[in-house]
Amino acid sequence: MGSLSESSGAEDPVALWLAEADAAEREGRQAPPPPTGLEDEAEDLRMCVSMLAKVWPGQEDTPIGSTHVDRPVVDQTLLPDKLGEFEILRILGRGGFGVVCLANDPRIPRLVAIKLPRPEWMASASVQRRFRLEAKLAGGMQHAHIVPVFESGQLGSVLYLVSEYCPGPNLALWIREREKAERKIDAAGIREAATVVAQLADGLAHAHERGVLHRDLKPANILLQPIGPDVPADAPLSRFVPKLTDFGLAKLMEQGAGETRSGAAIGTPSFMAPEQAKGDLDAIDPRTDVYGLGAVLYQLLTGVPPFGSAFEVLNEELTPPSRLCKNVPADLEAICRKCLEKDQSQRYPTARALREDLE
Hints:
By secondary structure, the protein is α+β, with helices and mostly antiparallel strands.
């Protein structure tokens, strides 16, 4: 298994052939022959996609960490046995970009999470560049509050990332469990929320100091690593180590490095900063990620995101956290509101400055 190589930016003729062949098969037509001289590579890719098709059983998307470690998402018979040397165990989550599987790495041995792109996206040169960029950026960071990427590789034309496996829930699921249990956000919970966001701010500062912006900070992209065995998904936050994951929308701070389409809104509407909602890509900087962390803090304190849509981000005034949760102290509310200022110049200039105030 080789390492990821730099993309030329051209559409992959083998991947394009694969898309045409799959469409023909679905429609009952004869598949076109593979590109001349690339027959072996085409067959390798066809085998990989056949494997991937087994892990897309047509269910709704599920975020990573959305199920307990002992509860499979899909029938085990749908899964392939291996991906290269990795022994595939089950799906951890799936989304718009790809699938993440739990696997055993027999070389160590250890459990790992393997991220693979959706089969229908393989023909896209931009998706391939984005996948390679994520591998490059995430693989260059080592921090207690960032999920480490162990390796990246390629089988045929299928790219993959191998990262640490976190058996706990993601923060979005943890918040939903708190809501279902109707647990009150008390003083202890508020202190835990501030601690978690301070830890994440430390991890984010590590990324920023290495020239990496995340650009899609939200509870679903924060995994909770249990401290010790048998920690339930709804345990207090103090029993988990929070870790940033999914740098799929990340970019290097240098102008244009790994950039998405000009003018495109980047991120998740309820958690994106105003500059993201406007599609002002030139304005995105570390303060944009500070906003994202502030939005995470807001939901931990109140149970809801600060805004429900990109329109509200741009046009509505923020409801003070204390209006939704009377236990929020004034100093913590001030920190949260400073993160969520619509004017970037009024936010914390760095994630490290945010962490220092929280501490």
